[in-house]
Amino acid sequence: MKSSEMLCPTAVSIILLFVVGQMSLFPALSAADSTTLQSVSAGNSPSEASKTTPARSPKSRVLFDDFSYSNHQQLKKHGWIIRTAAGWPGVPGATWSEEGVSFLEDPDRPRNRILRMSSSTDAAHTAQTQICHQRKYLEGTYAARVRFTDNPVSGPGGDQIVESFYTISPLKAPMDPDYSELDFEYLPNGGWGINGPTLYATTWETFSPEPNWKKDNVFEKLGGSRAGWHTLVTQVADEKVRYFVDGKLFAEHGGGYYPEDTMSINFNLWFIRDGMVNTREARRYNEDIDWVFYEATRLSPDEVEGRVTAMRRKSVKFRDTVPAKVPALATPCNF
Description:
- The protein has about 325 residues and is α+β, with helices and mostly antiparallel strands.
- The chain folds into two domains: about 5-50, no CATH class; about 60-320, Sandwich (Jelly Rolls).
- It has helices spanning about 5-25, 30-40, 45-50, 70-75, 300-315, and strands at about 60-65, 80, 95, 100-105, 115-120, 125-135, 140-150, 160-170, 180-185, 200-210, 215-225, 230-235, 240-245, 250-255, 265-270, 285-295, 320.
- The protein has a 17-stranded mixed β-sheet that branches.
- β13 and β14 (about 250-255) form a beta hairpin.
- It is globular.
- Residues about 1-55 have low confidence and may be disordered.
């Protein structure tokens, strides 16, 4: 037998003793340490591996705003846009003004503050109001507590006006198949061929704007005055869109009308063209918002109330843990 062959077992023994001795110098690896080593072995530095964070669960993706503000800058700091862009919907030539958004003490609930939208007209000039939150929402549960009104706070009544809470994506082209819009709309003086106060829940597939107006949507309507405070809930889950008013199911839509594109959260207050009373006397209408809520899971109206109540008890005025899209999407506040 050659000498090299005789030395082989001895060399192996020495190597094994060395390896065992080195391993005893290190504690057992945790799962996190193991992950870091795997990342480093894949070509990432330990610092890069430590930056990896797990995705948020749907229950942790929440927006809540109590609208406890005193000025516009505070509102904007939390991702809201006050519309100033001209255009649809409403009266041609109307302005969309920041002056229509104000904050005030809730006369019915001590220490509570609300956001008020005010829109006005005197025939010569019409001012409409809208606020929009970042475009980063799709499936989940949307809710808001709003106060609808039937009559103007000043001037003669009778104008066909729309008081709304809705979600929407941009229309990329006429009859865009990816367009998404989910609406609660209250018309205190009727409109769109309907007389008298009417609440609509509408789910849109798409539309073509004027002058080549065409629409593809489904809706339910409920007659009778809805003046006063109401909690509106929209569920978007399991290929169904469900609308609730004060805890009761109002409408359910699905199929091709289920939303497909990322949406923003919006409120607006606007006049229906050709639906204004024939007078030059000034009049002003209000819509109030107490709070808005979103969670990326399906919640019942009772569960929504529970979430909001729990945050208010903890004096949470604002929370936004809904991540922006990557890259972040533009949020046009113009419709």
